[in-house]
Amino acid sequence: MTSEAGEHDESGGTSDRMITDHYHQADLLARFEQAMGAIGKDRGTVTTADLAPADEFHVGGRPATEHLLDQLALPATAHVLDVGCGIGGPARFAADRFDRVTGVDLTAAYVAVGTELNRWLGYDDRIDLRHGSALDLPFADASFDGGYLLHVGMNIADKSRLLAEVHRTLKPGGGFAIYDIMRLVDGPVDFPLPWASEPETSHLATPDAYRKAAIDAGFTVTAENSRVSQARAAFERLQGQPPGPLGLHLVMGQTIGEKVRNLTAAVTGGLVGPIELILYKPA
Fold first, then answer.
1. In 175-209, which positions are buried (b, 16+ CB within 10 angstroms) versus exposed (e)?
2. Predicted local confidence at residue 10, as pLDDT
3. CA distances from 145 to 76, 103, 170, 238 (A)
4. What pLDDT, in 10s, does the model give residues 118-171?
5. How confident is the model at residue 3, as a pLDDT?
6. Alpha carbon of 36 to those of 25, 87, 207: distances in Å?
7. Distance CA 111, CA 115 (A)
8. Averaged over 215-220, what is the pLDDT?
9. Residue 5, pLDDT score
């Protein structure tokens, strides 16, 4: 799970603060270092695989990231944009496939932690994480060969502006992959959820709404994939396995159990589900 802007406010509005407060975990880097010690690792020996159970906090984790990026026809020389990069888990995975990754996230503490983890793992020269909003990306037009976002749009009300900004920063011919929890049918969901503590910062939308926003922004939509069955299998695995020291509790806090239970109920009840969309900016 990554964090991003809801209703954009250049001065840093109430909605933005509510979102960053939701994601904030005190002393996160120190907690990561302590958890690394519990598995016999330190700054010099920890690997991206060691961190994956904690730093890829979206449904399905690392396998979901791999499945998404497999669908982007980008060369190894690509410069890739990670929207809502969080502490950089997907960016580190992507950096092993592509030449460079630039990430942006609303939560400054996530960017600081992710940057330090990149230093420990030797990604300094391939990954650049920035503090900023997905609704006002701090990059020039046509900066990137492609990009992705994973579980970000649920915090963003203005999907049209989000995708217009992404479209602006991609080069012609660039691909962009979305993996979000989307609204499947009307009905109430219980809070807290992994991305929101209260309804005011949750902005679920249907796949049709995403698709319309993408087309309006100038994208061609080439694929839409439901990952609901995979999500249900992932929830079953979580229930059957005790969390290790390096786990989602580090970034989701003490309420992780309630958040996951509420999301599981919403997915199994057919209200919401993880959906992939693959977009391309015409050449």
1. bbbbbbbbbbeeeebeebbbbbbeeebbbbbebee
2. 33
3. 11, 14, 6, 35
4. 999 999 999 999 999 999 999 999 999 999 999 999 999 999 999 999 999 999
5. 59
6. 17, 16, 38
7. 6
8. 98
9. 47
- The first and second tokens of residue 15, run together, are 């909605």
pTM of the model: 0.93
H-helix or E-strand containing 180?
strand 170-183
Q: CB under 8 Å to 282, separation ≥6 — which residues?
A: 172, 173, 218, 220
Phi-psi region for residue 260, left (φ > 0), alpha (ψ -120 to 50) or beta?
alpha
User: 130, 156 in Cβ contact below 8 A?
Assistant: no
CB 58 within 8 A of CB 151: yes
Distances (CA, A) of 124 to 2, 54, 95, 99, 213: 20, 20, 11, 12, 34
Tokens of 80: 């890739």
Closest to 75 in 3D by CA, of 98, 58, 57: 98
